[in-house]
Amino acid sequence: MSMSRLVFAACIISMAAIALAATPVTYIFGDSLTDVGNNNFLQYSLAKSNYPWYGIDYSGGQATGRFCNGRTIGDFISAKLGIPSPPPYLSVTQNVDTLLKGVNYASGGAGILNDTGLYFIQRLSFDDQIKNFKKTKEVITANIREVAANKHFNEATFFIGIGSNDYVNNFLQPFLPDGQQYTHEEFTELLISTLDQQLQSLYQLGARKIVFHGLGPLGCIPSQRVKSKSGQCLKRVNEWILQFNSNVQKLINRLNHRLPNAKFIFADTYPLVLDLINNPSTYGFKVSNTSCCNVDTSIGGLCLPNSKVCRNRHEFVFWDAFHPSDAANAVLAEKFFSLLFTSFKLVFAACIISMAAIALAATPVTYIFGDSLTDVGNNNFLQYSLAKSNYPWYGIDYSGGQATGRFCNGRTIGDFISAKLGIPSPPPYLSVTQNVDTLLKGVNYASGGAGILNDTGLYFIQRLSFDDQIKNFKKTKEVITANIREVAANKHFNEATFFIGIGSNDYVNNFLQPFLPDGQQYTHEEFTELLISTLDQQLQSLYQLGARKIVFHGLGPLGCIPSQRVKSKSGQCLKRVNEWILQFNSNVQKLINRLNHRLPNAKFIFADTYPLVLDLINNPSTYGFKVSNTSCCNVDTSIGGLCLPNSKVCRNRHEFVFWDAFHPSDAANAVLAEKFFSLLFTSFKSAAPTAAPTPSPTP
């Protein structure tokens, strides 16, 4: 998907595809700054923190294997994302349900180089962590199949924070060989060339979205300050770190250019940490030059059970000789989020902050339900349907100039929205019923003549009512589940977005028709109640099938479409019809609100497109149109109002709001798509990519 265009249309209100708050999936790699307990499982490791006083400020006051008195930065960030902190890999190696939600591979003492931290006896180097991730992929792939697994990892986010030990527990140690045999330039080159191969290995395993955290000012941590007679930061060490960070950033840029669809980010946290150390009082701290725990740096610098611990732990930036305190991690997490939000071209960070996803620009998957305003060819496959548009002059302005089954001279609003999202328009369901690869990318179930009620559009002989469309979606789910297994299928549908634009035909081709029974036996209040109660059950059916993110497009001012205007002696909009539509829209909005409160994790949106369409009709010149009260195609409303092959078509099609008696023109759909995007961007608290408002009805 095109990142810059989407950013998800301003994160499509911060998507994600939607995310409509899609649950972020994160895989974490690193050292003791992010280890949450992997080293607990390494029997002979000397790099452990599963004893007091570690964890004294963690929930329950127990040591967990975190090298901190409380939470790591990763814990705080996970909380911001609304997810639990990913568990240590060694605690969940074969649990596929857990592995799918994200895992932490970090290991205290780990480095980019395999010989870093050797004196800890056991630790998981970055190479070891990548090998463990490969095992994770194998377990997941065996359970949900290759297609779904690849999609899962392509859309997950990989956080990597590693390299500190390559300095502190390798190059800077006078008794270890690397500091003796390499100049710093040579050592940096070794680190970068090794990291290059490691990041490419992750890419080959499916990682497309990687955040690499640059190193902080290691010359200012307590274990290094003690080497200075004055207790100051070690300037030379900090200069080396800046050189390393600069080279990593260049590497990230090269990989983004070299690897297709790679979206790697270098997060420069150095200045954030340095500011906290240099100006502790600004952030509510008093001490930043030594640690809260009175550690012995001659035997490792960790906080041992017999160490003396300060009482005012919230006033110290450092917990031990290497690691920030819980309070400092809270501040750094906030600053890190601000860095992501304000600095990254990928805006992927803004999506993280708004929780649309880690969408992190995941490709949107959309399932579309509706009538002729969004039908892209389903009715072509209904042999006896009278609601078809697979003949001239339909499609005259579509690519190739051929009729496709779209009820327009060109593109539907859904086509324009899909283009904005950087994805192809989802194909008609009846053309791809068993093609799982296609079904996973999104499908269009819309059918010209369809309504909320099953008896709407009966005189079209064949059409797929909303209930029929839901049944077809159920078949889609069955095909996908059979191919990628239930866990992955449920996740897929929970994170997809469902666009629904239906109800126009329930008026135009049902209630408003004097020869049909519904308009005779029901008052409008009763008819609305019937529509809403039916729609309530239908939306709940979709929810039971996995839909969690639904955008329901309200109806447009149907009293102003050409097929209705001709019923007015003066050719004006039918006021009573528009009032009914406003009542219907109001009741749908109330229904959506009730469902959001009633159904766990439901994120349903009502998109009120009525005022957008009305403004286009009332003020056509504002948008570059000249005619909005009649159609470009000279239709005969007495026999349906569609544009037949023998109809006369205007030459200046771009000047007409309506193509036939019911449907907007290609040019009008382009305008409405823009307006609909603006509506979403400015109005919705939860966000989602979009498909098609419903200005008018169907055949």
Summary, kept brief:
By secondary structure, the protein is an alpha/beta fold. It has helices at residues 3-14, 73-81, 96-99, 126-144, 146-155, 164-171, 178-181, 184-204, 222-225, 235-258, 270-278, 326-343, 348-354, 413-421, 436-439, 466-484, 486-495, 504-511, 518-521, 524-544, 562-565, 575-598, 610-618, 666-683; strands at 26-30, 102-104, 157-161, 209-213, 263-267, 287-291, 316-318, 366-370, 442-444, 497-501, 549-553, 603-607, 627-631, 633-634, 648-649, 656-658. Keywords: Hydrolase, Lipid degradation, Lipid metabolism, Secreted, Signal.
Task: Describe the protein in words.
By secondary structure, the protein is of the alpha/beta class. The protein has two domains: 3-354, Rossmann fold (3-Layer(aba) Sandwich); 366-558 and 574-609 and 679-683, Rossmann fold. Helix content is 40%, strand content 9%. It has 24 helices and 16 strands. A five-stranded parallel β-sheet has the order 2-1-3-4-5, sandwiched between helices. Strands 9-8-10-11-12 form a five-stranded parallel β-sheet, sandwiched between helices. Strands 6-7 form a two-stranded parallel sheet. Helix 1 (3-14) crosses helix 24. The longest helix is centred in the middle third of the chain and has 24 residues, at 235-258. It is elongated. It starts with a helix and ends in a 16-residue tail after the last helix. The relative contact order is 0.11. The model is unreliable at 1-21, 341-361 and 681-699 (pLDDT under 50).
